[in-house]
Amino acid sequence: MTGLISEELLTNIGRQSKPQREIVTRRDIRKYAVATGNRQRKYLDGDVAPPMFHVPLFWDVVELDQLTPDGVSIDTLLPKFPLERAMAGGLDIEYLKPIRPGDWLTSVRTLTAIYEKAGRSGSLIFYEIVMDIRNDDEELVIREKTTRILR
Amino acid sequence: MNPAPEVGVVLPERQYTPDNVQLMLYNAALWNGHRIHFDLPYATEVEGYPGLVLAGPMLGDWLHQLVDEWLGDAGMITSVSYSNRGATYVGETLTATATITTFDAASGALEIDVAICNEAGESVAPGTIGAQMFMVSD
Questions:
Q1: ipTM of the complex, rounded to two decimals
Q2: What's B32's domain CATH number?
Q3: Residues B31, A22: contact at Cβ < 8 Å?
Q4: pLDDT computed for residue B137 by the predictor
Q5: Is the pLDDT of residue A2 over 80?
Q6: Between residues 1 and 40 of chain B, which touch chain A (CB distance below 8 Å)?
Q7: B86 reaches A (C-beta below 8 A)
Q8: What whole-number distance in Å separates Cα of residue B30 and Cα of residue A59?
Q9: d(CA A127, CA A145)
């Protein structure tokens, strides 16, 4: 470790969000399918959700005064990092069960990793958040890992 | 399923030229208020972008669409791994591409290299999609 990441910062690993429970509606599926330019009738009609529908379903809904001036909601799961400029990140998603209108889904997000790497122009901090989405039978429907890079 | 699954097979490409309306509807569907996606003076004058920035996960969605259309009812996407490597803007035409890299005929498992490329041919969202063909048992 080259020193950007303190022991105290590492104690945040394992932090979990409160469970968020949402209902899947045909209307929301249709809106998402249209907005993404999807061409398949089963999605445009909202019979079943396309891949990545969990992205709009679990996007944080916060009140206006909680948005930053550039319109972003602050992720309360994250600690204050010594680097702040976010670079492109990555997504790893496992799809385990289909999602249909009427499904109640619950997501829990966990901060699972914080680490440092040397970049071309200095140190970079990486963090990972895993979101588990389960149905009311406690079955895992989607597991998504987000990796973000700060410089 | 056309073309038939085989290593090296390139799936039909698709081009996307999203406009302001599509970008607005996408971010509205998410409830994403980030100004760089709809406030042109802010995006250009404050953030220094050449235009309105396309939302990264929208490109991620397009990676899925190409494979999902090809699979149809013959299989399903089981995983994706991708990253956003560069910003893209309203007015650009982006091309989604996919090439089958592994296919296990016995299990029906597939791996497919996917990418979104800009007009300069740079891959701005490379990734891999895992898929599973539904096996007919008798």
A1: 0.96
A2: 3.10.129.10
A3: no
A4: 63
A5: no
A6: 16, 18, 22, 25-26, 28-36, 39
A7: yes
A8: 6
A9: 10
